[in-house]
Write a structure and sequence with these properties.
With 462 residues, the protein is α+β, with helices and mostly antiparallel strands. It folds into two domains: 5-200 and 371-460, Zn peptidases (Aminopeptidase, 3-Layer(aba) Sandwich), CATH 3.40.630.10; 202-256 and 302-369, Alpha-Beta Plaits (2-Layer Sandwich). It has helices spanning 5-23, 35-52, 127-142, 165-171, 229-238, 261-267, 274-281, 294-297, 340-353, 379-392, 406-415, 440-460; strands at residues 56-60, 67-72, 80-86, 106-108, 117-119, 149-155, 180-183, 195-200, 202-211, 217-218, 303-311, 321-322, 325-334, 360-369, 372-373, 397-400, 419-421, 437-439. A hairpin with an 8-residue loop joins strand 4 (106-108) and strand 5 (117-119).
Length: 462
């Protein structure tokens, strides 16, 4: 393959301006007030696929926002890459914390992005990273270097849970058939430390309710005579971890994957300075499961955290009551092979069993998703690693993410193909926050790197 740098240099301004134009459309899927903007964005994405050289570029209706499908088939005997991305964005609130309007993109230099970064909602998550793939395919098509087939599936509901994606995928398995799925909705460690996300944690999210007496009681007249739901709830929550911060739910660890020393050693190559980590969070010490490093605790190990807890009187001044009820919201981040529905049931059974007499317990499951892992010895990973090495000059570090992208497990189940997560964003890009941005260098580097994945993946499959 010819070096894409010349084509990128010649078209740099156009590539940036086209992304900026896409970012001006406030495609907020969570707010019905922006529904027409979301639909307009789908049309803009369809147009960009056509202009990039796709033979097919269609808008497929769902019960929610549409999915944009595109394809360029050059030979059915060659491998097929399916690109997934999303064109919807998070709400921009709180608006007052933005240094510039969220839908009026501006390029500003920063310490991390001296060549400039595009500040706008969706710049990194995920319009900018999705658009890298469109421009990479444009390069390969326009220069007659596309080595295999490519398909696009770009949805408009990722930020609200991808409610209609599962139905679409199940009803279009033949259309979406592929040999590998490529997603850029993650990040890398640093611009000089490339990395590939090889694992995502699953999620089980529940709400618990502890009920004691049938009404709030005077804490002087009844204190010490009846169970206090808040006291009981905090004791129950505390019992969910032992002294080594190991989760005490029976069966919780039965399916937890144990990584090889080789993969743990590869992950350990990621630069990490504990002192800087503590300083950035203003904490005296880190805290977590015994026997694992900080980076392992938040990526390859399951966790259980209270996300919110309430009950009783929390207004100004004093009100001496024993509350009738106490509540908490609890999330469990899961590792590959842990089934989120099974874990939810294990939690429910255990939490009900440890409740003392004198209170009633209710556990309400909210939502969840499966974890995912791509082994580093697969062709897909090796092709991606070689692509990064070609453009960055060094091998990328395999990195497990602490976050969750449930659709990845859905794709493997329904389409029976692995996903490669080639993210080019940085942790500092403030996705989901005010002043979200995406480095111009990162955007163009993605366009440069992606074509090599196509080349190496095709060669390795021949």
């Amino acid at each position: 393959m010819q070096d894409p740098k010349e084509y990128i240099t010649q078209n740099k301004d156009r590539f940036i301006n086209e992304l900026i134009e896409l970012l001006t459309i406030p495609s907020v899927s969570a707010d019905p007030a922006f529904s027409q903007d979301v639909l307009n964005t789908a049309e803009a994405v369809q147009k960009s696929l056509t202009e990039a050289g796709c033979q097919v570029a269609e808008i497929h209706e769902t019960d929610g926002y549409p999915i944009v499908y595109g394809e360029k088939i050059i030979d059915t005997n060659l491998p097929t890459v399916l690109v997934y991305g999303h064109y919807d964005v998070q709400p921009a609130d709180p608006l007052e914390l933005w240094d510039s309007p969220p839908y009026e993109p501006v390029i500003k230099n920063t310490e991390i992005h001296p060549e400039g970064a595009i500040f706008a909602r969706g710049s990194c998550d995920d319009k900018g990273q999705m658009f890298m793939h469109v421009k990479a395919v444009e390069y390969m098509v326009k220069t007659d270097q596309l080595p295999c087939n490519v398909k696009f599936m770009i949805e408009g509901e990722e930020e609200v849970g991808s409610n209609n994606l599962a139905v679409y995928v199940a009803n279009n398995k033949e259309k979406l058939a592929n040999d590998i799925i490529l997603i850029s909705d993650t990040g890398m460690i640093a611009n000089d430390v490339p990395s590939i996300t090889t694992g995502l944690r699953g999620l089980s999210y529940v709400e618990v309710e502890v009920t004691g007496p049938n009404r709030d009681l005077h804490s002087g007249l009844y204190g010490g005579a009846v169970a206090n739901p808040i006291n009981i709830l905090t004791k129950m929550i505390a019992s969910l971890h032992d002294d080594n911060n190991h989760i005490t739910i029976p069966g919780f660890y039965d399916k937890v994957e144990k990584l090889s020393q080789k993969e743990r050693a590869e992950m350990a190559k990621a630069p990490f300075v504990l002192e800087e980590y503590r300083k950035a969070l203003d904490i005296e010490s880190v805290y977590g499961e015994k026997g694992y490093t900080t980076n392992e605790r938040n990526s390859i190990r399951p966790t259980l955290d209270v996300n919110g807890i309430w009950g009783g009187y929390i207004g100004e001044g004093a009100k001496t009551v024993i509350a009738s009820k106490a509540y908490a919201k609890i999330s469990m981040r899961l590792v590959p092979h842990q089934d989120w529905k099974e874990i939810t049931e294990l939690f429910k059974k255990h939490f009900e069993n440890i409740a003392p007499k004198g209170v009633k317990v209710k556990v309400t499951p909210h939502h969840g998703g499966q974890g995912y892992v791509t082994p580093i010895d697969t062709i897909g990973y090796q092709a991606a690693s070689k692509a990064y090495e070609t453009t960055f000059g060094k091998k990328p570090i395999p990195q497990r993410s602490g976050g969750s992208i449930p659709i990845v497990a859905l794709f493997e189940k329904e389409l029976e193909s692995k996903t490669i997560l080639m993210g080019f964003g940085l942790d500092s890009d403030a996705i989901h926050s005010p002043n979200e941005h995406f480095g111009v260098w990162n955007y163009l580097k993605g366009i440069e790197t992606i074509p090599y994945f196509y080349q190496y993946f095709t060669e390795m499959n021949s």
